[in-house]
Amino acid sequence: MSKISNFVLGLFRSVSGHELFIKGITTLILASGSILILIPFLYMISTSLKDPAQIRSDSASLFPRKPKMAEVNGNPEPLYAVTVDGQSHEFALVRKMPEGLGQFVDPARPDVIHELKINDQQQLYRWDIHWENYGEAIRAMPFWRYLGNTLIVTFVGMAGMLFSCSLVAYGFSRFRARWLNLLFLLLLSTIMLPSQVRLIPVYILFQRLGWVDTLLPLIVPQFFANAYDVFLLRQFFMTIPLELDDAAKIDGANPLQILLYIILPQARPALVSVGIFHFLYAWNDFYEPLIFLHSRENWTLAVGLQTFDALYTVNTHLIMAVSVLMIIPPILLFFFSQKIFTQGVVFTGIKG
Amino acid sequence: MEEESNESRREMTMPESGDFGLLKTQILMSLPSIRRMSLARREALAGYAFVIPWIIGFLIFTIGPMLASLYFSFTKYNIVDPPQWVGLANYAKAFSGIWDAIRTGDPRQFRDPLFWKALQVTIYYASIALPLNLAFSFFLAVLLNQKVRGINIWRTIYFLPSIIAGVAVTILWVRILNPRVGVLNPFLKDVLGVQSPPGWLSDPEWAIPALVIMGLWSVGGSMIIYLAGLQGVPTDLYDAAKVDGANAWQRFWNVTFPMMTPVLFYNLVLGMIATFQYFTQVYVATSNSLGGLGSPQHSTLFYNVYLYQNAFRYFDMGYASTLAWILFLIVLILTALIFRSSEAWVYYEGQLRGRG
After folding, report:
1. Chain B residues with CB inside 8 Å of A260's CB?
2. How many CB atoms sit inside 10 A of residue B103's CB?
């Protein structure tokens, strides 16, 4: 208690009333906005734990719950919090009547009937959490297969991206040559190039190679660098002092050794941040897997989940369970690397 | 351990001579000295060698395919049979009927009404979503730049939706917006007292607004870029404005806002390009519905969705390539226009301008 009052007093002492007002308003807006952000998440998680019967009858509820029942004359009847003569009771609704009225009884004394408006009474619920939805959802689709494909695409692609982009960024940050600046401008201009303008011939190329319906079209291009990550890494490499290179050169290191032993160890934060961005991009990507992967066993989670949604439309609880499973890895990654994340975004902007 | 760090410190001080060496090379490079040229040449060769992966990728996956799709845009091509030259027929298909349609005001006069519908849907979405997104994320960034308690928690919450964007989020929103079993309409009806809440994705009038709401929810991606920009505004500018007697509102309009216009510009250009590539949300939301992709009544037939349909549903690769090149040209022209207009409203530090 004293802690709180100290805090409040401290606030008054440190800032003027006007500033306090602005901070109060800011916090109020942020708090109400974050409720709007979090409710869909809450809805997703709670739906994944609901009983299918609840989704049909009580779909708008944000909680996995079940009506509280009581036995009246051998039949289970729903319980309501009922106020009679200023006293609240837990009464069971035994019969619905016209004009929104209902017959309520005390389960202990079923012979005394109270006729009350149903809408004025508060129905009672209890928690009803179905963890088994997750097991059922995983069994209803080739979940592990999709997960495996997604992990292969994500991590092999990430390795290829880190390898090629490090080389290219090093080339653009440390060497002087006539055409390098022009090439770098060309590279930057591809950031704004809509991928559709090259998609169809690339598809035909992969088809001729027999790679369509394999994971290769999603992985192989990563080994040829991309503009976003090269740009980010180059910007970071430029901040590493040239003196380090020169010292290594005097010791007889060749350019490749300088990259391996001087630049890359210094650039760890930048490598980690482009790695995380690549993970998020590859994990969430839907467009390319949809185009290149045709048969069920080759799908990634994104495509698998979309099709699962089409096939099991009525089983909302299972679809939400898979959706929750799919958003857990990005969220975990986000929480574990939050600092790198917010710093990384500063210079990458938007990817994918 | 100690010795090692001494060693590296000595190495750190050496480069001054190395720098001088580089300077000398630079001076000598401008002279026609063959011996020095070879050193510069070696550096250049090493530079080119390191960027080779990108050059190869650029040739195979960018410039080559771009030229190929330009060629396909003049052909009839279904992948199975070899491409067949048809001249401007694909472009004629897209554009013919335009004068009759304008004259009569009847979209049926277009030879390919869906092409125009797709353009209209995309531009309609862009005209609502882009300004809202820009304003909303800017506003949020300003709030999240205040020094209030627990600011890191707020930032995390607002950023969260943008890291999971995609299929799972769209599936979730389709359920939330569902007029029969969703949670939004009961809320609108019971809490806000809306008599007949809209059918959202099942109503042609409301499908685009529904997608706009979905987009606003994950506005955190562009918000974080503004936030970075706000943190880069030098504090002495605010101090100077305070000395001049500017109040908070004046400081915002005369310091913060001009300093943020480059970020606004960046988000506008990328947002515009992203709208023309809008796909996943529409595919997930509509491909399983009764009306099919782009339903209801083509109200969500975005440009990229129509392109996908032509390429990978009808395998009309020639026409799809034409659509891709038209898309490319539209994006190019719009980007050029935004760049041109930016002279009037984007402020770059260190640039002198007429307005005080």
Report:
1. none
2. 9
Architecture of domain B92-345: Orthogonal Bundle (1.10)
Omega before residue B53 within 30° of 0, cis: no
Put simply, the answer to whether A164 touches B51 (Cβ < 8 Å) is no
Q: Which of B19, B168, B279 sits opposite A287 (nearest CB)?
A: B279
State whether B61 and A202 contact (CB < 8 Å).
yes
Burial of A109 (0-12, 13-18, 19+ CB in 10 A): exposed
DSSP A59-110: TT-SS-EEE-EEEETTEEEEEEEEEETTEEEEEEEEEE-STTEEEEEETTEE
Nearest one of A11, A42, A44 to A27, comparing CA atoms: A11
The β-bridge partners of A79 are A92
pLDDT digit string, tens, across residues B227-268 = 888 887 888 888 899 899 888 888 889 888 988 898 899 889
Domain boundaries, chain B: 2-63, 92-345
Closest CB from A167, A179, A291 relative to B50: A167
Q: What is the pLDDT of residue A299?
A: 96
B140 CB neighbours in chain A (<8 A) are: 33
pLDDT digits (tens, 9 = 90+) for B97-127: 888 888 888 888 889 999 999 999 999 999 9
Q: How far is A27 from chain B (nearest CA, A)?
A: 7
In chain A, what is the greatest distance between 2 CA atoms, to the nearest angstrom? 101
Residue B114's identity, in one-letter code, is: L
3-state secondary structure of B3: helix
What is the predicted pLDDT for the residue at A343? 55
Is the minimum CB–CB distance between B194 and chain A shorter than 8 Å? no
Residues of A in contact with B276 (CB under 8 A): 194
- Which pTM does this prediction carry? 0.86
More confident residue, B350 or A264: A264
Which residues from chain B sit within 8 angstroms of residue A34, using beta carbons?
154, 157-158
